[in-house]
Specification:
single chain; Alpha-Beta Plaits; 2 domains; six-stranded antiparallel beta sheet; four-stranded antiparallel beta sheet
């Protein structure tokens, strides 16, 4: 169903045999956002905590070519329960969504261990480009809209990424509670002309398949 692309941050491993992990994030994050919001913070956390090495990140694509999920590739010296718990804690500290999966490589794919993780819930908002005033482009207003919604959400959530469709642009926000996020912005969306016909959707919490 998916194919990977855009691997980054590869390193050389000269310390002998290690255990290979893949953290599959249940979120359609654009590569630039993935680097800023997940790859860079995770690399810092893993080095600071002595957990192992961050290898790289990639996008998983759906059949229509859109980003469906993202993989973060890691190496650790051992995959005991304590180490895995620390890796998951680090991933959740940087905002891993519900429905994410940690895959611990075995001797064969059938022997891989899969551990669900993630604490954040996702919210998708459609911005209708057909409603843009004449002379105003999407880029003119998108940053402003994201900042305004982010201000209303406060600690309840934060902007993560976007998906551009034929007539709409979908904005993705993640936080501790979909209900809390949607309640904080309902009035703003009802008043804003670009969101007049848009709904708020809860992001699916099913783990993406490989």
């Amino acid at each position: 169903m998916f194919s990977g692309q855009e691997s980054t941050h590869f390193i050389d491993d000269e310390d002998g045999e290690r255990v290979y992990l893949v953290a599959r994030l249940n979120a359609p994050i654009q590569p630039i956002n993935l680097g800023e919001q997940f790859e860079d913070p995770l690399e810092i956390l893993m080095k600071a905590d002595g957990l192992g090495e961050f290898i790289g990140g990639s996008s998983l694509l759906a059949r229509d070519g859109s980003i469906a999920a993202c993989d973060l590739e890691l190496e650790v010296r051992q995959a005991d329960d304590a180490t895995i718990a620390r890796v998951i804690a680090a991933l959740e500290d940087i905002g891993a969504p519900k429905g994410s999966m940690l895959i611990i490589e075995g001797e064969s794919e059938a022997e891989d261990r899969r551990i669900p993780f993630g604490t954040q819930e996702g919210m998708a908002i459609r911005l209708c480009r057909d409603e843009l005033p004449k002379g105003i482009t999407e880029s003119d207003i998108l940053e402003e809209v994201i900042a305004e919604i982010g201000g209303l959400l406060g600690e309840a959530g934060a902007y993560r990424s976007y998906r551009r469709l034929s007539t709409d642009t979908v904005l993705f926000f993640y936080g501790y509670s979909f209900e809390a996020m949607s309640a904080r912005i309902a009035g703003y969306l009802a008043r804003h002309p670009l969101f007049a016909h848009a709904g708020i959707e809860r992001m699916a919490e099913d783990t993406p398949s490989a």
